[in-house]
Amino acid sequence: MVTSLRLVFLGTPAFAVPSLESLVTSSHTLVGVVTQPDRPRGRGQRVRDAEVKTAAIRHGLPVFQPDTLRSPEVESRLRAWAPDLGIVAAYGKLIPDALLKLPRLGMINVHASLLPRHRGAAPIHRAVMAGDSRTGVTIMRVMRELDAGEILARIERAIAPHETALDVERALAVLGSDILLTVIDHLAAGTAREVPQDAAHVSYARRITRDEGRIDWSRPARTIHDQVRGLHPWPHAFTTLAGRRLIVRRTRVIPDDAQGRPGTVTSAHKGYLEVATGAGTIAVEELQPEGRRPMPARDFLAGHPVSVGTTLGLP
Q: In angstroms, rounded to a whole number, what is the distance separating the alpha carbons of residues 67 and 89?
């Protein structure tokens, strides 16, 4: 029989919600949720609750939103909750040593990559942008060094050639929640097996910036396609058309050996834009003009004819 543990959960965005939901329905007791302060979100920059806070309130759980985890108030609150184990899932900030040592069984993390590959802030985006064919979720021990703790469990998943970072994130969120409870039960029973990461295969997934969205048409079509997929839903890949910003939301690699000047429109009469790249051709299937809603390329071309030979990406 598995001992019931008192759990504290630290998480913020949608990725963490399935893990939270699994804990709520488990045989363990979720005693409190720590999530980041409310921040402006969306195009209107209205202050809104993050997804974990919304889910926690729906379940009637105590919610704590400190500005910093280094405040004495945070340690005091966690001590009052008296957790046996802490679970971290995309909280968004490093956990101080004092808090890591507070739960009797320490803290574990639901990380969206096959560690030691893609440690860091943006593992899903970086996996898709790198053209990885497989990814997964790792449940690991949280320690001072970023994402370097021992591995308690891993589960793999293929990345389809058309999937975006959002598609992969949603799938991994569910996979992570599936294996999380098994790990917690093993920790409760004292049967967990912790395996050190292989330092020879470490890579880092640095935080995504807006500047990474600019498309360099001299790169190969496959690389650009992976950039578009990896930066969806934020910050999106973009180019310019007649000097105006054009967000590129969906693309497809056209398997041909055609050569043309990178960034040149080679066809605009099939319901999408064909654009020459440094190696191959890419079809732009969905885009978003500056200040407008997203739309299929077919709809854009109906109102904004683009001539063959037009060059994208010019100032």
A: 18
Q: Please tell me the pTM assigned to this model.
A: 0.95
- Helix/strand/coil percent split, the chain, to 5: 30, 30, 45
Look at residues 81, 105, 101 and name the one whose alpha carbon lies nearest to residue 188. Answer: 105
The CATH number of domain 6-205 is 3.40.50.170: yes
- The answer to whether the beta carbons of residues 297 and 251 sit under 8 Å apart is no
Residue 58 DSSP class? H
Q: What is the largest CA-CA distance in the chain?
A: 70
- Domain extents for the chain? 6-205, 210-303
Burial per residue of 132-171, b for 16 or more beta-carbon CB atoms within 10 angstroms, e otherwise = beebbbbbbbbbeeebbbebbbbeeeebeeebbbbbbbeb
How far is residue 165's CA from residue 198's CA, in Å, rounded to a whole number?
26
Distance CA 205, CA 190 (A): 32
151 to each of 111, 116, 146, 165, 184, how far by Cα in Å? 10, 9, 13, 24, 13
- Tokens coding 245: 């910003």
Q: Is the peptide bond before 161 cis (omega within 30 degrees of 0)?
A: no
Q: DSSP string of 215-233?
A: --TTSBHHHHHHHHHHTTT
Q: Which residue intervals of the chain are DSSP H helices?
A: 17-24, 51-58, 72-81, 97-100, 123-129, 165-189, 221-230, 297-303
Classify domain 210-303 by CATH architecture. Answer: Roll (3.10)
Q: What is the pLDDT of residues 211-270, one digit of tens each?
A: 999 999 999 999 999 999 999 999 999 999 999 999 999 999 998 877 789 999 999 988
**Which residues are registered as beta bridge partners of 11?**
89
